[in-house]
Amino acid sequence: MSKTQSNGDASPSRRRPWLIVGASGAALSMIAAGGLVWWKAQGPEHLTTEPLSEHAIAQTASDTAWEWDPPEGAEVFTVRPIPSGVAVQLDDGVVALDGVTGEPTWRYRRADASLSAASTTPDTRLLALAFEKEQQEEQDRSDPALEDLLVLDTSTGEIVGQQEIGEARPHRIVNSPVPGPRGATQHLPASGIHQVTNDARIELGARGFVAYSLTEDSELWENGTAFPGSPRTMRSRTPTQARPRSRGTPLSPAD
């Protein structure tokens, strides 16, 4: 079987293999470069495309279909399935690859900030990216740091939502158990984009669970409590009732 290899070759001494299963029952082999090198260019590198064809995800692998090298100096963190292939999460953004050919289809990378988190929605139609943001001198140090949230259409790479959010607190970012209603234990990060639905991101704070729109700067609903022994209440907001947040307001209060 022939192979298609894209540009962006990395030094052999710094390569490590990535192996994933893609379309047509073939294993997709990618070579990841280690290290961190900042771009010299100013502003984001954003390339979009026409809506892409969808490819079924194979359940088994029989051969290597193609190989892809990440851009020089970029570090690969993980690979996420999307309808047209895979989205490769780098330290400074994401590159989408066609699942059949391995050719890059769209990309979004930033030279001025590192990518702190990324999540696809359950239907894989949207990809949420959180970038570190330079903090203002007048910002209260007790408040969560701010991040830029971008939501991309995985079929085209186009931006469908952009807003400013509060950074997930470090001690609650990785599967921290939190008391839930009626004695349940919730294993959820406190904030950020680590828990998403097809149209919302879910946070857990002193107010309980709160859902914020992925594409608009508004609150969709909240669960009135997340603590045992208290009645569980739910308040929803229709689009006309959605409550916008002022830019720079932390998403969840301090613990």
Question: What's the SSE blueprint?
Answer:
Blueprint: E1 15-21, E2 26-33, E3 44-47, E4 63-68, E5 76-82, E6 85-90, E7 93-98, E8 104-110, E9 115-120, E10 126-132, E11 146-153, E12 159-166, E13 177-179, E14 185-187, E15 200-205, E16 208-213, E17 218-223, E18 234-236, E19 243-244
Parallel strand pairs: 2-4
Antiparallel strand pairs: 1-2, 3-8, 5-6, 6-7, 7-8, 9-10, 10-11, 11-12, 13-14, 15-16, 16-17, 17-18, 17-19
What does this structure look like?
With 255 residues, the protein is an all-beta fold. The chain has strands spanning 15-21, 26-33, 44-47, 63-68, 76-82, 85-90, 93-98, 104-110, 115-120, 126-132, 146-153, 159-166, 177-179, 185-187, 200-205, 208-213, 218-223, 234-236, 243-244. Residues 221-255 are annotated as: Disordered. The chain crosses the membrane at residues 18-39. Keywords: Membrane, Transmembrane, Transmembrane helix.
